[in-house]
Amino acid sequence: MIDSFRDAFRLPDLKRRILFSLGVLFIFRLGAHVPTPGIDAEAMSQLFDSGGVLGFLDIFAGGALRRFSIFALGVAPYINASIVMQLLVVIFPTLEKMQKEGEEGRKKIVQWTRYSAVLFALVQAVGMTFWLRSLGIFSGQLFDGLIVVATVTSGSIAVMWLGEEISDHGIGNGISLLIFGGIVARVPEAIIQSWSMIRLGEMNFLVLLIALILMVGVIAGCIVLQEGQRRLPVQYAKRVVGNKVYGGQSTFIPLKVNQAGVIPIIFASSVLLFPYSIAKFFSGDIALFFQRIFGPGSFVYTLFYVALIVFFSYFYTAVVFNPSDVANNMKKYGGFILGIRPGKPTSDFIEKVMSRITLGGAVFLAGVALVPNLMTQFMGITSFYFGGTAVLIVVGVALDTVHQIEGQLLMRHYEGILKRKDKAGGLLRF
After folding, report:
1. What is the pLDDT of residues 339-382, one digit of tens each?
2. Least confident range of 101-110, 162-171, 245-254
3. Distance between CA atoms of 30 and 426, rounded to whole angstroms?
4. What pLDDT does residue 425 have?
């Protein structure tokens, strides 16, 4: 593996992409420590010491929300805008047709997503400013409030731009890598805090050990989920052209168990935290009711969380994977699945198989996301929040980035990071 990473830095283009991504992540982490003018940082920190949903949101912001820095909103507005736009594409045939038109249609949808992200950022910035004012954390006048709103909104736009720059000129998915960077940045702090609590006797060492063992199991489950696939055997018919015989080989179609990756987790978390966040801006019994039922850890939150993970797993799989295209390509090149007629029967069969494995993957995804969180509640570990959601995102983004690097190496006839050939010529995976 070390040799493979060394090979990656031997390739000028790949080296440039990796260093570019690391540089952008450094800028993102630097911006997370630049405070927004007019905000009482000490009072803001005390507010987050109470835990709850604010600590959960701060994990994904990499501490930027706790400090209320210029990047306090993080990638949340862009994610919300992406969810809304993808739903609109499914609902309205005009948008769906535009998306299928080619590069120009997709560029228009991306541009509208950006505009929507700016609108979401503006609304969230205004809401958070009024909320902080009601708590006494922000005491400025109207002009000062406008400065805070403009600063936080501009920071969100900058984060969106940084993510897109990574996707275009770096390695990996930009938005996912920014979320990854925010989560990983909190790990050293969580370790130090947990160790301090053990020394002070506020946490049992055995409980922490059990939690760590559970976390290792969750990470292993995440890797199995991300790498698991169902292989459909495909046979290609023989063709005789002159004196030569073409085709006749056997291959397979790899159907990933978790085709959507970590997108369902991110989308589900964003959707469920939206009503809670809105309710925080208001007072009264109705607002307290919404805060109580939609707060992370509540029964309603857990129920909707599982349902949304399953929904977005199917939804995103339908967006990125089209069985009809696979069936048509097989038919074009003389491929067929044994016992299944080419064309629509093959498409229906692939869709049926994909639907079954997506259900299994979605349920497993929800289970992995929920188990550590439930165990955290039962075991009383409140010093940090690094549950299944965070682990899934970290593992998923890391594997996706490694696979992209591996693909670049294999294209240039280098050995991949996750693959090695043994002396007998076999293929080993680790």
Report:
1. 788 888 888 888 888 898 999 888 888 887 777 666 666 666 55
2. 245-254
3. 46
4. 38
Say if CB 81 and CB 116 are below 8 A apart. Answer: yes
**Sequence-distant contacts of 382-389: CB under 8 A, at least 24 apart:** 382/51, 383/190, 383/193, 383/194, 383/197, 383/203, 384/186, 384/189, 384/190, 384/193, 384/194, 385/51, 385/55, 385/56, 385/59, 386/59, 386/183, 386/186, 386/187, 386/190, 386/215, 388/218, 389/265, 389/269
What residue numbers bound the domain in which 141 lies? Answer: 1-201
Interaxial angle between packed helices 93-100 and 103-135, expressed in degrees from 0 to 180 and rounded to the nearest 10: 120
Q: How many residues does the chain have?
A: 430
pTM, two decimals, is 0.74
CA angle 23, 26, 32 (to 5 degrees): 145
> Could you tell me the CATH number of the domain that includes residue 125?
1.10.3370.10
Rounded CA Rg of the chain: 24
* 28, containing H or E segment: helix 12-31
Q: Is the dihedral of CA 97, 99, 102, 105 positive or negative?
A: positive
Q: Based on the structure, what is the number of domains in the chain?
A: 1
Tell me how far apart the alpha carbons of residues 338 and 148 are, in angstroms, rounded to a whole number: 63
Residues 309, 365 contacting (CB under 8 angstroms): yes
Q: Would you call 327 helix, strand, or coil by DSSP?
A: helix
Whole-number Å distance between alpha carbons of 246 and 63: 59
322 assigned to some structural domain = no
Report the amino acid identity of residue 247: G
Closest among 219, 174, 239 to 28, alpha carbons compared? 174
403/392 Cα distance (integer angstroms): 16
- Is 194 within the bounds of a domain? yes
Is 422 in a helix, a strand, or coil? coil
Neighbours of 346 (CB within 10 A): 23
Three-state secondary structure call for residue 250? strand
